[in-house]
Amino acid sequence: MDLNDELRQLFADERLDIPVRPGAEATIVAGARRIRRNRRLAVTAGAVAVAVLVSGGVALATHSTNRSLPPAETTADAPIVTPTTSTATTTSRPPATSTSAVTSHSSPPSVESDPPPTGEKKERERKDVPPSLTDAVLTHTGYGPFELGMSGDDALATDLLTLEWGEFDCSRYLIRGGGTVVVSEKFGVVSLRVPERVRTPEGIGAGDTVGEVRATYPGVSDYRHGVSGSATEGTDAFYSFLTVEEPPLHEPVPDTFVVAELRLDSSKSDCMLAM
Amino acid sequence: MDDFTDFVRAALPGLLRYAHLLTGNPHDAADLTQTVLEKMGARWGAVRRITDPLAYIRREMANCHVSGWRRTRQGDLLADIPDVRVVRDPDPFDHEPLWTALRGLPPQQRAVVVLRYFEELSEAEIATVLGVSRGTVKSQASKARATLRSRLGALVGGA
Questions:
Q1: CA Rg, chain A, in Å?
Q2: A24·B12 Cβ contact <8 A
Q3: Residue A82 falls inside a structural domain
Q4: pLDDT digit string (tens) for B29-79?
Q5: Is residue A270 packed enough to be buried (19+ CB in 10 Å), middle (13-18) or exposed (0-12)?
Q6: Do residues A151 and A231 lie in contact, with contact meaning Cβ atoms separated by under 8 Å?
Q7: Nearest residue of A to residue B97 by CA position?
Q8: What's the gap in Å between the CA of B132 and the closest CA on chain A?
Q9: Bridge partners for A167 per DSSP
């Protein structure tokens, strides 16, 4: 076979396809809006370039990072805490428009997922944990004083939040002592990401294996970067147990993968970029 | 922006694949695709009126790739978010000789090869896309083939 044919054959190889991360189009639309807004605000060219480049690409493909995760099924799936009908969780994913497109904790307006905290950062978080969060767990309703659905004003009234990022009707705040809160103007608190030390009431959190998550919550379903499922019956809340590793496309998340991040999100959210 | 959302949803798989060929790895492919699409979306009102927006976007991606976008991006990544990429997945084609040889080509030569053998464009069309002369396209394609052949050695026959 000559080189021309070799090249055509190579370029036709389906393994060169890159899986598209759910919600990627929302990320791009938001990025385009951000550019337009920056232009309108006459931000310097350098700042625009940084905004574009920092946000570049990393949220598009499922291979590239470890934090993007759709919620558990928003309809008939079983709660993972009370898994009386756990088999129902194998239904299809919710539409991307109702999911978290990206998770971002780096400088705004990045849409990149943050890496695990450095040792120094973790140490700082441990020292700065406020009393109200010292022994807090991530329940199916929230974390310490923060509950899904509470208003942004009420969340800010805790004096534990620092604005990290805000755009349109969504804001993301750093929680003193670690973690983040995403607040929607419309729905209030829609996402809670907790620091590594925090666990669910059943004792599951960062450092546990996916096998341990499944044993504790049989109702969870796979996602490429971990598992997730409804936190309790009859609500919009869902837990997400996100792993650093990612299985090959279309293969199940192995029991041996380790949870790196624990989140409680509301499927009723209009803050896809911020979650 | 609704129709831009629909456009992106439909075009994204193909553009990511195209960017993968251009850049040689999935991470840069995702970066390039998002960078260009966001720029297009920011002026979607004009872009949508182009006869073939997808072809236009592919041209922009090729030019963006050739114009040194990658070097700029890497610099910013190192400077501003040094620990973003804690985990880098291996490229499934890391051990494919032709793919490896392609990745070693300069951006413009690589773009010429992709436009010729993936996009199936003529020399004249490639020249238009990249904003260079037909002679440049011809010489770049010739250099690329020579380089690929030499790197592949006995694995691939002559073109």
A1: 19
A2: yes
A3: yes
A4: 888 888 889 888 888 877 777 778 888 888 888 888 887 654 344 333 322
A5: middle
A6: no
A7: A10
A8: 22
A9: A170
What is the domain range of residue A150? 3-266
CA distances (Å), A217 to each of A13, A237, A247, in order?
39, 15, 20
Alpha-carbon distance values, A153 to A9, A149, A163, A187, A270 (Å): 58, 11, 13, 12, 18
- A226-230 and A237-243: which strand pairing? antiparallel
The DSSP element (H or E) to which A167 belongs, if any, is strand A161-167
Cβ separation B26–A63 shorter than 8 A:
yes
Residue A273 within any structural domain of the chain: no
CA distance B59 to chain A (A): 18
Residues 227-246 of A with CB under 8 A from B: 244-246
pTM comes to 0.44
Q: What is the ipTM of this complex?
A: 0.79
8 Å CB contact of A64 and B89: yes
Class for the domain spanning B91-154: mainly alpha
Q: How far apart are the first and last CA of chain A?
A: 50
Query: What pLDDT was estimated at residue A95?
Result: 32
Number of structural domains, chain A? 1
In a domain, A275, yes or no: no
Distance from CA of B33 to the nearest CA of A (A): 6
Residue A274 lies in a domain: no
